[in-house]
Every structure is written in structure tokens, then in C-alpha cells.
Design goal:
Blueprint lengths: L12 H5 L2 H7 L10 H10 L14 H4 L1 H12 L28 E10 L12 H16 L7 E5 L5 H9 L9 H6 L10 E5 L4 E5 L5 E8 L3 H16 L6 E2 L3 E2 L11 E8 L1 H4 L2 H10 L2 E4 L12 E6 L7 H21 L2
Antiparallel strand pairs: 1-5, 1-8, 2-3, 3-4, 4-5, 6-7, 8-10, 9-10
Bound molecules: adenosine-5'-diphosphate (ADP) and D-arginine.
């Protein structure tokens, strides 16, 4: 295990909660799949600028290493160990009104969930043969879909560079995992076992074995958030009927990164807000009030361009999928109102 002194200048939740007492308690523990503390904390040790610093190797590690995971989960999500997570994927429960009926602000809408297969390790711990098995199970299920969800699976291995770069540029495909994911072991054997399924309209997509076994995505141009959510809800139900997901009634859907636990949902719009972009203090105040996050437009850790921002729900655990989407709708509605005031 790398020297814990690597954490001395870190501000990550790992550095805050891996106290001497917790380290002594956990240092010799292993999960039934053989994963140890060093597997879980390596990303935070190698990247002291991490915000969180830990990734789970299998569902069991959330229990075996609870003395480290629980305080991180409680601080990040405001979710206590005694609480139960609830799921609600019914789009009719949204308090829905298009926040941009004239299409002046919202360029596109994307809602995704992360999912992992029951009884398989997570990406940071999975073996090559297990990952290949999950790729086959998931892609076979998706290739059997017909109608609006009908499409084709494209393995990343063997994909032409120009095809891959175009799909990334158009925001459909993932980039190779960043240094945080690499240090967690999520890029091992890249690109085998990874790929993308999409329907013919590219409004329903599934990433296979990026950060989680599945990233199930519904997206389209414009701001019809309810239509995007309805398509996603239908797709999740169809997939879940064939492939059981890792889930428990405390943490909800189990994910590689604790920040995605619960719904594992990020509902986002790419939205033009140049006036707010010139007043980031006000922008951030409104974002905080409505539990939304401001990102750049080429993925996590990217920058905004041309006054366009990625606005998405921040809460994922202890809220339902309907509440995640509602957070985004309410936040975007308030931001558009302020953007208009600043004209
Ligand atoms: P996630 O973790 O939710 O997959 P990222 O921030 O890594 O999200 O984004 C993945 C890709 O999805 C990036 O190319 C990003 O630009 C794209 N994306 C995210 N939200 C939207 C949106 N509302 N419209 C179009 N593309 C989007
Ligand atoms: N840089 C890592 C990422 C945490 C959240 N993002 C994910 N899971 N893609 C960190 O610990 O800050």
C-alpha cells in the first residue's frame, strides 16, 4: 500500500475520514472477492486533488469498509446509515412545465443512470473475463430491443479513430477514463469489454463498462425533459427485466463511485446562460439553492464554451429519480428567470 503521507495536503473526503483509528480497523480486512483497503483508496492516494478519493471494488466493500465509506456517504449525500433509499421512475409524478417553451436557452437534454450487474464485482475490481462476460450479457440484451429502442452495439475495441472521435465530439461516447478512474483500476485492459449501444436516432444509448457496467442514457435536442425521462424510464424497466442490477434498500443502486449511489442519476441540460456566466457568484448561489451542479460542456472537469453550461441535479441518494429530475427542472427554471432579469 502506498504511503498514507500522500494524503497530508489533500482536501479529499478520504483524507478527512481515513483516520489512524479507521486505518488500524480496516487495514487487514478483505471482501469475499479478495479486495482490500488499498484497492479502494488508491485513486485518492495517487490523486491528492480528488474531491472524494475512493472507489468501490464490489458491493460488499461498502459493508466491510463501512467505517470509511459511511462518513464519506453521510457528508457527500447528507444521508445517514439508518436511512433507506426509495426509487420512483414514474415521469407522471413530475411537476412538469417546459422551462424554455420558445427554445431560447436549452440546447439539449440528457438523463443518465449508472447500473451494475448483481453478483459481479464493480469495474475497479472486475477481472477481464468477468468484464467480457458482462459485455456479452448486456449487449445481447440490448441488441434484442425493437421499436424506438432498437439499435446496435459497437465495441470500442476495433472502432475507427475518426468514428470514435466524432461520437465523443457529438457528446454520445465516453472518453478513456481520466487519471482518477485509471488509478482506481477502472481502465484496466482498455478498450476490451467496453463499447456503446445506441438506437438509430441516437436518443437512447448505453455505455458498457466505462465507470459502471451500464450508463443508460436518454438524450435529445431541446428542453422536453419529461419526454427524455419517459424514454429512460421505459428503457431501464426493459433492461432490468432481463438483467438484475446490484441494489440494496439502504444505498439504492450500487455504483463504483459513492457519489453516484442511490439513483445514480444525472439529469442535465446544455443551456446558454451568458449573463449568469458573467456573474458566477449569483450563478453559484442559485445553483446551490436548487441543488444543481454547474459543469463544462465536454464532460466532468471540462470548461464551459460560448456561455453554454451543463446544469444537472446534485442529489442522487436519499431522493427518488423523480426528485432528481425535479431538482434539475426547478433549478433550470430559476436560472432562466435570472438570465432574463440580467438582460
Ligand atoms: P456523466 O457522468 O453524466 O456521463 P459527463 O459529464 O462525463 O457525464 O458527460 C458525458 C458526456 O455527455 C459528455 O460528452 C457531455 O458533454 C455529454 N452531456 C452531458 N449532458 C449533456 C446534455 N444535456 N446534452 C448533451 N450532451 C451532454
Ligand atoms: N475525481 C474523483 C471523481 C468523483 C466524482 N466523479 C465521478 N465518479 N466520475 C474524485 O474523487 O474527486
Amino acid at each position: 500500500m502506498k504511503n498514507l503521507n500522500l494524503l497530508k495536503d489533500s482536501k479529499s473526503l478520504l483524507s478527512k475520514y481515513l483516520t489512524k483509528k479507521v486505518f488500524e480497523e480496516l487495514k487487514n480486512r478483505t471482501t469475499k472477492d479478495g479486495f482490500k483497503l488499498e484497492n479502494i483508496i488508491n485513486s485518492g492516494l495517487e490523486n491528492p486533488d480528488s474531491g472524494i478519493g475512493v472507489y468501490a471494488t464490489d458491493e460488499e466493500c461498502y459493508k466491510i469498509f463501512a467505517s470509511l465509506f459511511d462518513p464519506i456517504i453521510e457528508e457527500y449525500h447528507g444521508f445517514k446509515t439508518t436511512q433507506k433509499h426509495k426509487s420512483n421512475l414514474n415521469p407522471d409524478d413530475l411537476k412538469w412545465q417546459n422551462p424554455d417553451p420558445k427554445g431560447e436557452f436549452i440546447i439539449s437534454t440528457r438523463i443518465r443512470v449508472g447500473r451494475n450487474l448483481k453478483n459481479f464485482p464493480l469495474g475497479a475490481g472486475i477481472s477481464k473475463s468477468q468484464r467480457d462476460e458482462t459485455e456479452q450479457k448486456i449487449s445481447e440484451t440490448l441488441n434484442s430491443f425493437e421499436g424506438e429502442l432498437g439499435g446496435k452495439y459497437y465495441p470500442l475495441e476495433g472502432m475507427g479513430e475518426s468514428d470514435k472521435n466524432l461520437l465523443i465530439k457529438e457528446h454520445f461516447l465516453f472518453k478513456e477514463g481520466d487519471r482518477f478512474l485509471k488509478s482506481a483500476g477502472l481502465n484496466r485492459d482498455w478498450a476490451t469489454g467496453r463499447g456503446i449501444f445506441h438506437n438509430y436516432q441516437k436518443t437512447f444509448l448505453v455505455w458498457i463498462n466505462e465507470e459502471d457496467a451500464l450508463r443508460i442514457i436518454s438524450m435529445q435536442k431541446g428542453g422536453d425533459i419529461k419526454e427524455v425521462f419517459s424514454r429512460l424510464s421505459t428503457a431501464i424497466t426493459k433492461i432490468q427485466a432481463k438483467l438484475p442490477f446490484a441494489y440494496n434498500d439502504h444505498l439504492g443502486y450500487i455504483t463504483s463511485c459513492p457519489t453516484n449511489l442511490g439513483t445514480a442519476m444525472r439529469a442535465s441540460v446544455h443551456i446558454r446562460l451568458p449573463n449568469l456566466g458573467a456573474d458566477m457568484k449569483t450563478f453559484q448561489q442559485i445553483a446551490d439553492k436548487y441543488y444543481v451542479q454547474i459543469r463544462g460542456i465536454h464532460g466532468e472537469h471540462s470548461k464551459s464554451e460560448g456561455g453554454i453550461y451543463d446544469i444537472s441535479n446534485k442529489r442522487r441518494l436519499g431522493v427518488t429519480e423523480v426528485q432528481c429530475v425535479q431538482d434539475m427542472i426547478d433549478g433550470v427554471t430559476a436560472l432562466i428567470a435570472k438570465e432574463k432579469d440580467l438582460n
